[in-house]
Amino acid sequence: MQRLTDFTSYADAQKHYSKDSLWALFDGDRDRFNIAHECVDRHAGGDRTALRIAHSSGLDEIISFAELASRSSQVAHYMVSQGVKKGDRVAVMVEPSLPFYCVMFGAMKAGAVAVPMFTLFGPDGIRLRLDDCQPKILFTNVEKASEAEAGGAATVVIADDEFLDSLDGYPGKFEWQTSASDLVVLQYTSGTTRLLPAAVKHNHHSIVTLMVAALYATGIRPGDRFFCPSSPAWGHGFWHGTLAPLALGVSTGTFSGKFDPERLLQALSEFRISNLTAAATHYRMMRNCGRADDFKYCFEKLSFTGEPIDSETAAYVERVFGTKVRSMYGTTEIGVIIANYPGADDLEVREGAMGKAVPGVEVEVQDADGNPCKPGETGELMVRKAGAWFPTKDLGRVDEDGYFYHGGRADDVIISAGWTIGAVEVEDALLSHPDVAECGVIGTPDSLRGQVVKAFIVLKDMERDGLREEIQDHVRSRLARHEYPRQIEFVTELPKTPAGKVNRKILRDQEAKRLEAAG
User: Of 262, 304, 369, 504, which has the fewest CB atoms closer than 10 Å, so is most exposed?
Assistant: First the structure.
């Protein structure tokens, strides 16, 4: 019988998709199901590679399915010996490495609830999350141990190679006892360290739903050499970059340590990666580092998420990497709902479009009264769940052929002299200027127009005379004349979310404080 992984076209996706066909990709059923088994243990025969990790130090770490299966089982036995019971929270604050993945999958086998945590959290961010999830054990590295203890962790364990070696006396197999409905992961969405974002609860069967994104948003198929540089502390790196490919028996890769775009490019070339999914920021950083042309690549499929990619970077990626980069759209709470179907030769990749709805999902652009918008009209993107429309809190539009376009966050809209201006469109125009490396756009109060567009810009080189006016003219030439940034502030860096996106909320908050101080 043919499986969903046998099909690559957009037409076949619409024809053959069903919920039952997703479940057919797995060993388990609703009564007996475990993510660690589906992602690791069932692929452990032979010496197939599960993970390729490019460390910022230059080290390449290669991990087989067999080693990961055995070591994670030993960790599961250890957790049980330490009193970890089904449903207990186990926090993991470790950079991608063999210990990280062994602890994550070991927790899943033991029936615990894994809580991945970003390694760059400070004491405040750690305490907020520990107070919320109350982990039985927190696994971390030597450098973060004192902060973890200060953050209130009851038990801190250093997860390194020495820790794994100390478990050699435990069996290399573990009899897990979980069902599809059991809780398995608490995933905190990216946010500031001083404000606790929501923890999204995932059950073991979440991996089944995830296959929609794997098949149609990142285009994973057996034989791919996959890579995702996003941190597994966040949804993109953990679910799309780690669990999705491993569940299909596909080797995946990631980056560990302080991000370096040149090191990433080297790894993508040396690992002969054929399928890359990354944040839009990663692609811009690879472009801006100026070294992308120095390597050879084997790319067949490229995808991005997190925020729209600017047109100049998209064109650059296609030229250097040899294929178009395709968008996927969703949130941690609702999953991926729109995609450009990497690997589907029968679906046009339209400039600026996020793609079309994934199979089994109904998406609509609605106005403020809940009515469907006409093609080309901007409204809020809504997804139908459990018989009701669920707000994404993002703006967008749809064309006559069903392609969706992102219009920015609902709170990123700028109203100037009655005109509605999208921050994303202005940023795209700014990034096409040769001197602009990064930018963030917000609305700032104006006595005449209500708001005007203000741009915070990181330059590639030093500021020069006339550059401000040159950039304004550049935007005027690409957008409507009222959309150009009337105010420009050159900065050395922009505030980012932990997931790497420009944090416009912080820019708005900083601007409000500046105006308040100025009287």
Answer: 369
